[in-house]
Amino acid sequence: MSILPRKVVDQVLQYKKPGEKEEIFNWRVKYENQFYNYAIYWKEKKIVGHIAIKEDSTVPPVSEAKTIIRLAVSVNTILRFFITHGQGWAHTVDEVWHKQSKLLEQMYQKYEVKMSDEVKQSFQEFMEVPTGILKEYREIQEANRVAKRIQQKVIGNYADQSMEKELDKAWNQLFHAKNNQHLLFLKTKESREKVIDFLSKEIPLWDLKGRWDLQKIKTQHRSMLFDKDELDAVLDVQSDVTRNESGEEAFKEILANTRNPR
What we know:
Blueprint: H1 6-14, E1 21-24, E2 28-31, E3 34-43, E4 46-54, H2 62-90, H3 94-111, H4 117-154, E5 158-159, H5 161-187, H6 189-202, H7 208-223, H8 228-236, H9 240-256
Parallel strand pairs: 2-5
Antiparallel strand pairs: 1-3, 2-3, 3-4
Helix pairs in contact: 2-4, 2-5, 3-4, 4-5, 4-6, 6-7
């Protein structure tokens, strides 16, 4: 664990404004063989300032500091996201998805002779869901492992551009895998409904086992549905261009609040 030089702490405090709280990151930024400390200033739970300081305590101009701040913000944002959401997103009960796959296959085999070609196609699409979801979970889990490994290197030490690049790749892997899961739910909605409608008509009321299995399939289907806000959020993240543009706008605001001299 690195110990902050007293001179760096003094510089951070010097640029602090009344009513603010400061936070100096416990890791540094390494850029072109120089080390920088990065700090943020808080006021009423809102970040109101940023500063990058060299290890010798000199405060570089914003023209030099913006690359350091961009790297620090990028690494910190991605690491925080993985710490907050990575483990949860990576968690899957494989058995649940395997059981769903097996149940759908059993239903398909049992009622195949009574199916129209359209229902058969819908069944095939429904049966692809558990396999596809598990495939994307593997991608999420791998991305989470990469982020954990880099986190262990960074905390108490430093981050550089190669680590940022690797983290960004892991984030994109996580982002696209989660998005692919959502898209799989969306694009199979109609097919799942056709399967449920078919089974509801074909399974006799006296077939308690069959009706219970149908209820499981209905429950699984409902768990894949989105309310309006969730649907809007899923559709909103389809474009990486939008995400990149919003990121640049956020960074412009950060630069505007940077305390490094201009």
